[in-house]
Input
Amino acid sequence: GSGLVGSGTTAVMMGALLMYNIAPGPQLFVQQPVLVWSLIASLMVGNIILLVLNLPLVGFFARMLSIPNYILIPIIASVSFVGVYAIHSNIFDLLLCMGLGVCGYILRKFDFPLAPLILGFVLGELMESNLRRALSISQGELDVLWSSNISIGLWIMSGLLLILPIVRKYLFIKKQQA
Output
């Protein structure tokens, strides 16, 4: 198996590999050695370039930290909008960028974790195609989704993952009141 994803960076890397039908995991070194060693070599070159750039510019970068957010955020947003518009020259892409930015802001305010969200975007298409495949094999019968012991076990675990945080919070509140 691929294992559990612990951070947003790991989720992005795993998602990128899965998008190109490359199974992440220990067998990656055996199945895709050119890719792995190219990635390691590019990281080495990137670190050397960072060292060459950062040593003379460390003072400038330190002064950039003193720029207030009310100046920095519009500059970052403007550069992002230019980049999004430059790819397809489409106004819809700008509106989508703004909508996703607002959604991201709301998710950040409510402390949603980033890794599951990225995995949902990346793996959603894969899950949808496998659901379509299962339904076409069963000729549209939905019973295939809960007909085996494995699928019932997965449904129960999914339900527990949804219910347990609520129960835990309820028990915590009860404990605080006692």
User: Anything to note?
Assistant: Residues 2 and 25 are 5 Å apart (CA to CA). The chain has a mean pLDDT of 87. The longest helix spans residues 33-64.
